[in-house]
Amino acid sequence: MSVFQRSRRPPFIENYLERTSWKLRKYKPFEELRLITLDTEASGFTIGRDRMLSIAVIEMDWSRIKLDTRIEWMVYQPNMAVNKATEIHGILPSDTLRGTPEKQMLEELLPKLSGALVVGHQILFDALMLNDALRRNFGIPFRNPMIDVGPMAMNELQPFRKSGYANQRPPSLEDLCAHFGLPLHDRHTAEGDAFIAGELFLLMCGHIRRRKGRITRWDLPIKKV
Questions:
Q1: CA distance 77 to 217
Q2: How many structural domains does the chain have?
């Protein structure tokens, strides 16, 4: 892409690309990194064919979830059909017809994601959905580093430690909530699952602090798309 083409990008895209990197900046104290918990609900599980139907983000710091920052979008998808995914999240075609256009949603979302470390459960799927939407609408990738609370639990919590069994899977949200005694509020909604993932992340961060005194980047399974 030429310098001229780059100069025509909207400011919100330039800001996202400038502030957001797959690599965590070593000079910045780790617990000063911005945290966002995120979840999406989609029309199916095939990247490139299926589409986001809803997405929610909630800001956090390293000790609490900032509920007053939560935002959820229903995304306009005119070609949605009822399928097996509908049975899980309950979003109907009539719901998405009242949603926010995907491009507008991304314009509103990117400032929230700029410079943030993103937390979620099965977060790679959400990131790939966002990556597909960002490339389709703006020609840019999803650049945020991510932490999945499932693999994090396998590193940190004894009942979920890696066993060597080839088909072992990371724990579900139900497994993790049962372990910590948390209620499953609004399961299979974007906002509900984002909130649950944030709660689990903070509980496991507390577990690390009690064990080690502080958290470093090496304690967390940080990934990228």
A1: 38
A2: 1
